[in-house]
């Protein structure tokens, strides 16, 4: 079993998305543990500080890697287009606006990174705020989309459709579970997105480090679970 676990981990790390999910989980886990340990004794404080440094470096690593995500996102957006194949009009428009938010997120973050790195002369705060706001909008749209999908699944109740084969109870339960997990994940990330907004906007800048780490760890673990579930079901 140990060999199978190592082999599975290697397979995950060999893919870009899999590696990103692992780095993200480690990043927030270090932030969670570092935040907790920083509130304890001086000896543990050193370990806590070290974990927070590791978390910061992993976060910076992900920011740099995202410099190459624009084309992949653009290809996805172009392929989806106006979602003509989507059966529900609300889902279609939510997806379109979500794709726009995600597409605009990347250049805003790139400019903020370039400003912080000294590549360009600009104030990064405005661009970080813009990228965080776009991320928050995308998360809210994701929550609404999942809620809409849940409503449609509950209405379905095994009714047959001429366009698609009837779904079993197991399939419906699996899809409902997936949408519920998506909502929890988006809510966890949205909590952090608001925290990273300027002070004075809801709870912007007021959350303790360990709580930010906890919210990020929850969403990251859900992401890994969903990836594993799709993989075991024969998905990509």
UniProtKB/TrEMBL annotation:
Subcellular location: Peroxisome membrane
GO BP term (any one): peroxisome fission
UniProt entry tagged with the keyword Transmembrane helix: yes
Coiled coil location: none
Keywords linked to the UniProt accession: Membrane, Peroxisome, Transmembrane, Transmembrane helix
One Gene Ontology term, aspect cellular component: peroxisomal membrane
Chief subcellular location: membrane
Record flagged with keyword Transmembrane helix: yes
Parts of the chain that traverse the membrane: 126-147
Domain of life of the native organism: Eukaryota
PANTHER family the record matches: PEROXISOMAL BIOGENESIS FACTOR 11, PEROXISOMAL MEMBRANE PROTEIN 11C
Protein name: MGC114945 protein
Organism: Xenopus laevis
